[in-house]
């Protein structure tokens, strides 16, 4: 049997590129679809160095039915789709809600239409722990925890897309897995691929590494008066390669006839760490001093949330393996690599 072809939308992005590496390592043949709206064509070169051949890639927008149709029709034997491509900035979604609904919902509908048309049955969808909103029954959320009214249009698109997929799976033509990611951090152990935030990073770890290397003057910790042991927010930080591996497990899971038509899995470590703990762990792992200050709370931040990962551990057979220190060290290695190759993000 040949290698199974998997369309990876957003395959040049942060999580997508790490998943491409894992797909190849597990005997799959990824077909990358990306329009580089929030990624860079250079990622394809870096992937080539990592996996030893140039991955097939198509520069197109997943909302463009005709262009994407050509990818499906040129490949008669596609085994599945992993759909990463989406707008993902919470703050930007407040400013441009229509663009978020249009892009995130439309691209999914185009993909579902084409899957049905070309008899492609397996879908893995990138969801987010944002669907839990601010959890009230404790801070550890399980897949059956209540979904809260979304705090942003971005979060709402994830809820809408989950619901669309759940309803579509009822027709027996498509089986899907919805993966609710917690906070991905870190980079491939080689330091050759990683997160590439355009402009000033919103996320904590790229802000830390950019501060450590001197691109930013100092990190601001957004508030230290939360009701947590050290007053700073708690999140479940997961190494991006562990997260990438969960997609391989999800494809295996969907491929087993007995398994549910639409499965949902939390993809997190099951541990919460505070912002202060992340900063301390970075300083310890790199033996560097980080310039930081305590600032105002950021609007919309959930106080504390982390995964109950028991379902993915026992049913998916997946567990996060890398520690917080390893994750932070890999993020630092990546930042150093960007400097070494003089790659400019702005
Ligand atoms: N933080 C700082 N300073 C910074 C950046 C972040 O203190 O400069 C703090 C935040 O306040 C938060 C923590 O670091 O407590 C993590 O923040 P991130 O922005 O890295 O991640 P979030 O948890 O806010 O966001 C993530 C995903 C989103 C998703 C959201 C809600 O990146 O896509 O979770 O679930 F929508």
Put simply, the count of helices is: 11
* Element-level helix/strand string: EHEHEHEHHEEHEEHEEEHEEHEEHH
Radius of gyration based on Cα positions: 19 Å
What proportion of the residues form beta strands (DSSP E)? 15-25%
User: How would you characterize the largest beta sheet?
Assistant: 7 strands, parallel
Comma- or semicolon-separated keywords:
alpha/beta, two-stranded parallel sheet, seven-stranded parallel sheet, about 40% helix, binds uridine-5'-diphosphate-4-deoxy-4-fluoro-alpha-D-galactose, 11 helices, about 350 residues
Structure, briefly:
The chain has 346 residues and is of the alpha/beta class. Helix content is 40%, strand content 19%. The strands form five sheets. A seven-stranded parallel beta sheet has the order 3-2-1-4-5-7-12, with helices on both faces. A two-stranded parallel sheet has the order 6-15. A two-stranded parallel sheet has the order 8-11.
Describe the structure.
The chain is α/β, with parallel strands linked by helices. The protein contains eleven helices and 15 strands. A seven-stranded parallel beta sheet has the order 3-2-1-4-5-7-12, with helices on both faces. Strands 6-15 form a two-stranded parallel sheet. A two-stranded parallel sheet has the order 8-11. Helix 1 links the parallel strand 1 (4-9) and strand 2 (28-34). Helix 5 packs parallel to helix 6 (153-169). The protein starts with a strand and ends in a 6-residue tail after the last helix. The mean pLDDT is 96. The structure holds uridine-5'-diphosphate-4-deoxy-4-fluoro-alpha-D-galactose (UFG). Uridine-5'-diphosphate-4-deoxy-4-fluoro-alpha-D-galactose is lined by residues 88, 90, 128-130, 154-155, 183, 202-204, 207, 219-222, 233, 235, 275, 298, 301.
């Amino acid at each position: 049997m040949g290698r199974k072809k998997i369309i990876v939308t957003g395959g040049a992005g942060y999580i997508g590129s790490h998943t491409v590496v894992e797909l190849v390592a597990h005997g799959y043949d990824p077909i990358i679809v990306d329009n580089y709206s929030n990624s860079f064509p250079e990622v394809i070169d870096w992937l080539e160095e990592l996996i030893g051949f140039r991955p097939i890639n198509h520069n197109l927008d997943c909302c463009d039915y005709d262009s994407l149709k050509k990818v499906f029709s040129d490949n008669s034997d596609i085994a599945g789709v992993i759909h990463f491509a989406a707008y993902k900035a919470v703050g930007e979604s407040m400013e441009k809600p229509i663009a978020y609904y249009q892009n995130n919902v439309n691209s999914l509908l185009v993909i579902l239409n084409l899957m049905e048309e070309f008899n492609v049955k397996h879908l893995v969808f990138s969801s987010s722990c944002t669907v839990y909103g601010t959890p009230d029954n404790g801070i550890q959320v399980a897949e059956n925890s209540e979904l809260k009214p979304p705090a942003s249009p971005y979060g709402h698109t994830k809820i809408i897309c989950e619901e669309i997929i759940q309803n579509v799976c009822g027709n027996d033509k498509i089986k899907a897995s919805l993966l609710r990611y917690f906070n991905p951090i870190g980079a491939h152990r080689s330091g050759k691929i990683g997160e590439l935030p355009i402009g000033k990073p919103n996320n904590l770890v790229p802000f830390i590494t950019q501060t450590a290397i001197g691109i930013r003057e100092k990190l601001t910790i957004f508030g230290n008066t939360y009701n947590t042991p050290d007053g700073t927010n708690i999140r479940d930080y997961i190494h991006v390669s562990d997260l990438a591996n969960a997609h391989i497990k999800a494809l295996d899971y969907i491929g087993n006839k007995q398994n549910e038509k639409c499965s949902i899995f939390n993809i997190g470590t099951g541990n919460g760490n505070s912002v202060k703990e992340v900063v301390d762990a970075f300083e310890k792992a790199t033996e560097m001093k980080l310039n930081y200050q305590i600032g105002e709370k950021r609007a919309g931040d959930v106080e504390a949330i982390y995964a109950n990962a028991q379902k993915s551990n026992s049913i998916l057979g997946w567990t996060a393996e890398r520690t917080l220190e390893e994750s932070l060290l890999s993020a630092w290695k990546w930042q150093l690599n960007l400097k070494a190759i003089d790659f400019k993000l702005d």
